[in-house]
């Protein structure tokens, strides 16, 4: 379980997150929607400890993120996929995927490589395992990024606008993989602009605006009543995004 | 007072040594600047043979040890020219040449960072090669060159310390003299080091001041 | 300086009389090469450590490293060398000319290599470091597997010019009676009364050597980065 209680984050004079309360249970597929600047990415970055909270607390499977001693443990429970891929440029696709398992989990190299090849094959990159990121397309890089995150066998998969930097064709590739993962029971928390995609695969939707949580509903409800609570802000957002 | 102690006269010695170092640094910087810029102009005008020779000489001087250059001039030249050379003269010649080589490189790279398109446009308007150099390239290149120039000057100051090896009584030589007499290397060399350090900082500060003044001159001051 | 009266004004460049000394020159060159190789290793170790300190989160680390670099950049090498050569025996450390020379070169070289490596570190995309952090890698592992490999790859060219600098600076070791290349040349020049030829040859030798090093650095850079964007 990911527990987020009263999470608050400020940058300069602005409050990016304003007392967010949220719980994510294993098996859920949660999408975080909202206009730009609403704090969606910041929330993800607080969960994996890239940003420090100014108030409130976050714990992942009981490990508190604010405590430096527990942060590493908390991080092992989750895997993150980034908008800009952030692959290690000096390593091949295979090495990108095997780095963390061999260093952190101390998985023997042979085993790590076999598992990595399986993962890469499952996303259609079996023949590209020994290429470097510079030799891959954007969509391929993101697929490697997904494998890299999955290689650590995380409880929770955090996805931060993972298709925003891709063209429509590559976006479709990646979304197909994510849909497969969701159907297979992977717990996912994703920030996205792809409202249609969110509608299709998530079972719960969280809506953020101005750092506040405006809605937290089962997906069907959220999309059926334009936000369930018929909040004008959400209706406005949805109508704009789903033209 | 024992002979091996420090005396107040040593202060005078230090100042004299400092003076020699500074004087040689200043002189060789100015001469080196003139020669280096002249070489750069040769390259700008693409003077056949001379431009290539200058480039070759600069490469040679840049990529060989200054100490060896000093030895070549101080020990070698007199044999060749059958004329004697004082240590100071040899130091002047060598360091000026060495500085010139680096000035040449900085100048060439600064000139090259001025956009090609500006040069083409100027030529289309009928400006002569000299006018282009003076009015368009020079002001901008000077701004580009100031950063590397600061580094070069600080470096060439350090290089002057080598003239002590051929006998010039500069700051380092005074240090060697004092060291030999007092046998207190930690004190002597620390003091010498501090003096060089302060001079280097002074030069860097002066260049920084110049840079801000150059910048301020070119900045938009608003309506 | 003895000037034989039979010398003429034109460039009498007689290298053939130096041939019997080529063996000595080679020995001197070997000593130079050894000193430079050891100093390069020392500089790299020191430079990496200092570069990491300069990019560390700790203010104290940054300040200390900054002082070290500042000091060794603004004091002439020969002064540093004399400080060590004459000073260390006073506190009971007898190193001899070679070891002192290598030590001095390493200390000075470390300041300059730290510059090159620091630039390499600062050029790393922050996102790449974030990805490493969230995957649970320890700080040591991130430095070892991500930061240093990437930083060193991009620092090859600047490090090449530091090495060139090291080679040129090593000639100053002749001032503490070390018979490396320049020191040997001095002896030969005195023996043969042909300082011009000897030092001119030396000049060309050093220039050729440094040119080779620059070329190699460029080749190494291309090879290491052949798969990068």
Summarize the structure in short.
With 223 residues, chain B is mostly helical.
Along the chain, the helix and strand elements of chain A come as EEEHEEHEHHHEHEHEEHH
What gyration radius of chain A follows from the Cα positions, in whole Å? 18 Å
Number of helices of chain C: 8
Oligomer: heterotrimer
C-alpha geometry of chain C? globular
Sequence of secondary-structure elements of chain C: HHHHHHHH
User: What class would the helix/strand composition of chain C place it in?
Assistant: mainly alpha
Q: Order of strands across the biggest sheet of chain A?
A: 6-7-8-3-9-10
The most extensive contact between chains is: B-C, 43 and 47 residues
The CATH class of chain C is identified as: Mainly Alpha
What value does the average pLDDT of chain C take?
89
**Helix coverage percent of residues of chain C?**
over 70%
Number of helices of chain A: 9
Measured as a percent range, the helix fraction of chain A is 25-40%
Topology of this structure?
The complex is a heterotrimer of chains A (243), B (223) and C (229).
Chain A (H helix, E strand, L loop, with lengths): L1 E10 L2 E11 L4 E5 L6 H8 L7 E6 L2 E2 L3 H9 L1 E4 L11 H11 L5 H14 L15 H14 L4 E5 L7 H16 L3 E5 L3 H7 L2 E6 L2 E7 H6 L7 H10 L2
Parallel strand pairs in A: 3-8, 3-9, 6-7, 7-8
Antiparallel strand pairs in A: 1-2, 1-4, 4-5, 9-10
Helix pairs in contact in A: 3-4, 3-5, 4-5, 5-6
Chain B lengths: L7 H37 L5 H13 L3 H16 L5 H26 L3 H9 L4 H31 L11 H12 L2 H34 L5
Helix pairs in contact in B: 1-2, 1-4, 1-6, 1-7, 2-4, 3-4, 4-6, 5-6, 6-8, 7-8
Chain C lengths: L21 H33 L4 H16 L2 H11 L8 H27 L3 H9 L4 H31 L11 H12 L2 H30 L5
Helix pairs in contact in C: 1-2, 1-4, 1-6, 1-7, 2-4, 3-4, 4-6, 5-6, 6-8, 7-8
